[in-house]
Amino acid sequence: MPDPRRESDTALSGGRRDAERNRARILDVAREVLAEDGSASLNSIAKKAGVGAGTLYRHFPNRESLVLAVYRTEVQRLVDLAPTLLDEHSPPDSLRRWFERLATQIRLKRGLGDALTATNHDKVTGETYGPVIEAITLMLRAGESDGSLRPGLDPDDVLLMMGCVWRVPAGSDGLRQADRLLDLIIDGLRAGPTPG
After folding, report:
1. pLDDT in tens, 10-54
2. Angle at 60 between CA 58 and CA 61, to 5 degrees
């Protein structure tokens, strides 16, 4: 005879998996939609994600909670990407690719700034700062170790220098300028012959 408790547990875990899939789908769609139009409605996001508005609101009771979740998820993906980049590219190239993606995330956050209160904007910036610095440190130390980057680079200094990359104007001219700035900064971080 089947155990009703086990069947109930199975149904619950299946429901949780569905809820997790819905949440992930909402976040993926919200990232795309909000990157294109920071003022897109939550109902349009739910529709594009293929879920009901009630499902979206169960996970994200308001616009700000969705925006915060999108940004946190994207920063975590970016932090998790650093070791993968190092497996596939040299440390300087990994650093450049990583900062291109960080610039995209910061532009996204800036574009969504109206949806965040000043307190939550500061909070999400503060909570993501440590993991971002750890990812930069990982790539800098890999470059120091293989001799491709200058020794002793401070990750806070590198992050501050890279700030110019996400301050370029919007549009294709701004993106070309960001590429030039990234090249200049990465070239400056490379290890070279010691002056003698």
Report:
1. 545 666 888 889 999 999 998 888 877 777 889 999 999 999 999
2. 75
Q: DSSP readout, 91-134?
A: HHHHHHHHHHHHHHHHHHHHHTGGGS-HHHHHHHHHHHHHHHHH
Residue 4 burial (CB < 10 Å; 0-12/13-18/19+)? exposed
Q: Is residue 115 part of a domain?
A: yes
Q: How many residues does the chain have?
A: 196
pTM of the model: 0.77
Single out the residue of 95, 102, 97 nearest to residue 76, CA to CA.
102
Residue 96: which CATH number?
A: 1.10.357.10
Residues 114 and 140 in one domain: yes
Of 26, 44, 61, the residue that ends a domain is 61
